[in-house]
């Protein structure tokens, strides 16, 4: 049976797919007349005539005056001109005799098939209130044998049959269901107890969706039926003039089928989504007589339906299709994919066959006729993102399998552990048995040994009684040798033992001494601690005592201050009284300022050495009064001044006053007669050879000094000094040089030389 179902489903799908036009299908269903529409006296005559091809419908617009269906029929028959005929063609038209199964098979089934191939599909029920939308979509019984089951239960059955008929073990399915309603422009989840208003979102990959809408994984048709029943109870319905249980909200039942097929290494995922939309019925408030809450509901319903009409109008307006007003209502926003998008949509328009509903039926037919022109562009959701629920479950399952394997591994390990523990216990038992056997054996051995000793004793005794070769055994040389050997061994053993004992004793003595030392140390530490504690206690007591004294003094001082303040204010008071009476107070009577005696401030003595601190009180050993301190510092200044003067004097040795140097040097030069000779030379007076040599030597020395001084001062480098002797060696050059040099120049050179010497002696102080 499953196979047959599968084949027929595939066939339905193929038919559906073959026609591009059928991406948006429109079917009309004329429901049977309701009891209230049938005139008990004259019967009922339908205004909707369905063509034999089941593609056309004609609505009869009677213009006559007959008041009942029978009379109207008669009148039309007799006067055909009294009737206008409105004929329209659709993908399918069901007359009032069409059964639920028929409607499902021809209209809904292809949509179901397409979702199994990974398409999005929508079945949309539209029509005036009470025309059979809910009946067609849901039906009223959820028994799988009930012939009045609607599209939803049948679709679900088909989906599960398809899944069951799939014998490919590499193919996995997941079916999820959601159920929502749009009531008064608020979206709420019919499968949840709360009535939180949900929002519509759009994502590139996911398309349009309701955020936070619950999705229920279902594994059988009965589970879906339970969800539907739950949703139905939550759906806003009311008893209206036109329908005992009129839906006051648009309801959308969503079925998502995920298919995951693993082929070798690759995985193919298909996700099909079926929206089954049961719209709230449009109604003419005038006819229904709605007021209050019902009126508000009606307005909202009509508004959203008119938004739906606007969207359709915009979609079919091929000339000006720039803007489609999807966002004008929640309904159109939600159906954005279904209307002109990635979806195979089937609109099912329901009409009443009753004469009284003619205008509504005609309006519905016209609406459906417009919708016929909508073109959708569905595509298989194959390249759906890898985050599909099934994929996630698959991954999760994989992880769980691994975890299970690990756990199983754990179990194996546990078994191994238990085995090892058992083995260990056996080993322990063996060991104990072995020890026991060993002990028994050693007891036996000791016993044997004892017995052997006894025997030996006995033999000895007996031997001592015996004679060997006519001699007593003690007298034999063998016995003596053996005896000596025995004695020697015993002595050796005794000595060894004694040595060991001595060693042990020494070690014990050492340990004892060490322990004694520790003990002494600890005792000493204890004494120190006791002493320190006592001192600390004493100090604490002293501090407390001092604090108390301080408090007492503070108190007394405060009292004195208060008393003084009182006295002062009294004096001021008296003074003012005296002044008021014009009496001058003599100077002698003036109260002297109270000079508070203060403890003289103390200063530390000046010392370059480290200050000795009294360990007990942390004070310097000696403190000076201010006067003493001033004296001390004055003394210090005197000493330092002397020191500085001495240093100055020393320094002055190297830095003689200019005039003094000049005088000395000039005197020296005069003494040597050189300057005179120079002057003579400058004056052009002839000098003798000796004099010339003398001058030449001096000039040569001056020349050298010049060089070295300039080198020292950094003006030139020593190595730059010419190698050849540039000192004047002729009378003429000597005279020229001498002429060039003045006395001041010579003195300046000499002074620089002195400075150089001084720097070498006291480089830091210079
Ligand atoms: N094809 C049908 N066969 C038998 N009874 C039908 C059929 N269609 C509708 N009915 C009956 O008509 C009445 C109204 O139907 P239904 O509630 O489905 O209308 P509706 O379009 O969903 O109304 P509303 O928009 O107010 O919710 C119900 O009692 C239902 O049983």
From TrEMBL:
GO molecular function, one term: ATP binding
A Pfam family this chain is assigned to: Kinesin
Alphabetical list of CDD domains matching this protein: KISc
Domain Kinesin motor residue range list: 23-374
Alphabetical list of Gene3D superfamilies matching this protein: Kinesin motor domain
Family stated for the protein in its record: Belongs to the TRAFAC class myosin-kinesin ATPase superfamily. Kinesin family.
Record-given protein name: Kinesin-like protein
Superkingdom, taxonomy of origin: Eukaryota
InterPro entries per UniProt: Kinesin-like_fam (IPR027640), Kinesin_motor_CS (IPR019821), Kinesin_motor_dom (IPR001752), Kinesin_motor_dom_sf (IPR036961), P-loop_NTPase (IPR027417)
Positions contributing to ATP binding: 127-134
The species this protein was found in: Blepharisma stoltei
Gene Ontology biological process terms from the UniProt entry: microtubule-based movement; mitotic spindle organization; spindle elongation
UniProt-annotated location(s): Cytoplasm
